[in-house]
Structure formats: structure tokens, C-alpha cells
Amino acid sequence: MRNWLNRILTRPAVFSVVLAVAALLVAVALRPGAVHPQLSKQVVVKAALTGYEAGQFSRVEAKLVYRRDFQRADPGWSTDNPGQLIWVVAVAGNYGISPSFGCCSVPADYPGHNTWGLAVFVDQGGPPHASEFQANYHGDWPPFFDQLPDLAAT
Description:
This protein has 154 residues and is of the alpha+beta class.
């Protein structure tokens, strides 16, 4: 082993190649900027659909995003911890709590149920817990969701 190492270290061209290959392997393994989620996509989708029948919804998707990107795409969400990783689960169909309009102010365009909803999970260890929700009856899918980056897909 020692002779092999000495031969590599005494030949600059070979040493340079070995060093470059080692640096490349480290860079690929660590992927600077890559995120490593605590929760999986499957786990958060399952948690978001707890209490609902399987197959009840026409479309269900989850994306891992930074809170700042989510807030930028759909203003009104919490701006605390902009660098926090969150899972946003979007559901097409009657998902979430039905809106309350007060005693006499039901909008004329309200179909009587939600047409899409969101559940937000902070990406942290332990069992998944949805911390924020949104439900809507305009359109059949969150208009901003498809433009969100999915950090779990990289």
C-alpha cells in the first residue's frame, strides 16, 4: 500500500488526475445546494389524506419547497422562517373544512363544496403534522401550485 501511494504522490500528472476524480466524487456525493428532506413525499400525502377515502380525489400532489417560495407564489401565508423547508400537498376535490360565510352572505358562485385544498407540513423529524391549511371553491386546482419548484425532485 505504501509503495502504491508513494508512486502516485511522486508523479504530478497521476496525482492531479486522482485529486480531480476525488474532488468530483465528493462534489457529486454532497451536491452543494441539494436538500435532504426529513419526511418523504409518500408520508406527507398519506398524512394529508387521513380521514378521506382512497381514490376520492382526481389529483393529489406534494412538493418540497422553501417557505419563501411558497409565500411568494401565494401571498398571505406565514413569512416566519423563510428558509424553512415545507411540504405543500395540493388536493383536487372537496378537501378541507367548508368555508363559513356567516348567516346571510353565501356567494352566488359557491357550489356548496370546496374544489381544491392545500395542507402544509413543516419538513422535520417525527410524525408528519399539517400546520396550515387552505381550501377554495374557485377553479379545480391551486393556480400557483404547478409553478412551485419541487426540491424533492432534484
